[in-house]
Design a protein that fits this description.
The chain is an alpha/beta fold. It has five helices and five strands, in the order βαβαβαβαβα. It has a five-stranded parallel sheet with strand order 2-1-3-4-5, sandwiched between helices.
């Protein structure tokens, strides 16, 4: 099983790949999935392999809240951070109620993501 720092589930391929590349320059390992089903499948096939998940709300095959619910069924302990350019207050409330660790509006800085990962790693210790 491949251990990674961050699983990115986002249909904006250029964004997900750029984010993954920029994080890798800081020594952070990433895996990108471009739709909800492939993200869920990756989590099922690699249980406990990701330290945290960055999840977009608007995906081509399912809404992010559905993906979040599936993730929390598979692994309730994994921190999921919603990153979105389109989220509403209702989306934020629903995501937090479903167990999301945070709801972040795009654009999100690399520094913010590295800080989140640092906090997750410190909580695990």
């Amino acid at each position: 099983m491949k251990q990674i720092d961050i699983l990115i589930i986002d249909d904006e391929i250029k964004f997900a790949d750029m984010l993954s590349r920029r994080l890798s320059l800081r020594g952070i390992t990433c895996q990108a999935c471009y739709d909800g089903q492939s993200g869920i499948r990756w989590i099922k096939e690699n249980p406990g392999a990701a330290a945290l998940i960055l999840l977009d709300l608007k995906l081509p095959d399912m809404y992010g809240t559905q993906v979040l619910a599936h993730i929390k069924e598979i692994d309730p302990a994994i921190p999921v951070f919603i990153i979105t350019g389109h989220g509403t207050r209702e989306d934020e409330k629903e995501c937090l109620d479903l167990g999301a660790a945070e709801f972040i509006h795009k654009p999100v800085s690399i520094e913010k993501i590295t800080t989140l990962l640092t906090h997750v790693r410190e909580e695990v210790k």
